[in-house]
Specification:
heterodimer, A: mainly alpha, B: globular, binds magnesium ion
Chain lengths: 201, 129
Amino acid sequence: MTAAPPADLIARLIEAVAATVTAHADELTALDQAIGDGDHGLNMRRGFDAVLAERDATAAKPLPDALKAIGMTLVMKVGGASGPLYGTLIMTMGKELAAGATPADAVRAFGAAIDALKARGKSEPGQKTMLDVLVPVHAALVADPRADVAAIAAAAADATIPMKAIRGRASFLGDRSIGHMDPGARSSSLIIAAVAGVLEG
Amino acid sequence: MANVGIVIVSHSAKVAEGAADMVRQMVGDQVPLAFAGGNADGGLGTDVGAIMAAIEAAWSDAGVAILVDLGGAETNSEMAVELLDEDRRGRVAVCNAPIVEGAVIAAAEASGGSPLAVVKQVAEELSPQ
Ligand SMILES: [Mg+2]
C-alpha cells in the first residue's frame, strides 16, 4: 500500500475483488450447500455487486473512508452473517488506518480488524471459519511484509477441510462437517489473492 | 408506551410474520411489536436495514427485546444494534431464546410492565444454559 493511494488503486481493488467473487460465486455456493445453507456465493455476489456499483464514489474518498464505505455496503447488502463479518473486518481497517498509512500500519490495522471480527463472530481460529485463513495470513505478514499471502491463504483454506465446524450452520452437522472446505475460508482466500494481485501488480 | 417493545428477526419473512401474529394474539396492542424477515431481495436471509427499521417501529423508552432464529439473524441483529444512536444502543437486547416461544413469553412479560432485563431473562429461561 503506497503512502497516498491514488483513487485508481481503490477502484482497481474493488474491481478485482468483485470480479473474483463473481467468478467463484457458484463454487462458494456449492461449498456452502455441502455444510451450510447454500447462500454464500449469492450473498457475497449481492454484496460485492453493490460495492462495485458504488466504485467511483468510493474511489474518490481517502482510503480510510473508502474502506468504511465498502464495509457498510457489505453490512447492508449481503443478507447473511458474512455481511457483518466482512463488513466489520473492512470497516475496522478503515477506522484503524490514517490517510498516508505505511504498509506496517496496514498490517497493524489488519490485526485490529481480525480482533473485531473475532468479537463479532464470537469465534476463534480452529473453528472452521474465515478466521482460519485471516489469522495465518496476518501472522505471515507480521513476520515478513513481503510474504506470498495468496499461497498462504490458499493453503490455510485447504487446511479447513479436515476441521470440525464449531461456529455457524456447519456446526449443526457435527462430524459431518469434516472433509469439506469452509466457504468463508474460501471466500477469504479468494479476496486476499485478489487484493495481493492488485497491490503487487 | 412504557412497555418494552419486541422485535422478531427470522431468515424467513413467513416465520417472522407468523411469530408476530402469535404475539399479537397474546398481547394485542399492549406491546410495541415489529418484525423483519428475509434478505433485501425477498429471499431467505436477514437484512440489517430492515432490522434497524423494525427496532425503530417497535421503539419504546423502556427498550426493545429482539428474538432471532439462526446465527445470521443474531449476527445481523447485533450489527444493527451497534449502528443505532448511542443513547438507544444500551436499551436493546438480543435474546438467546427460541424465536417463537421466546417472542410470545417475552411479549407476555413485557405486557405486564417488566423492565428489559427481566423480559430478556424470562425469554432466555427457555434456552438450556
Ligand atoms: Mg450460508
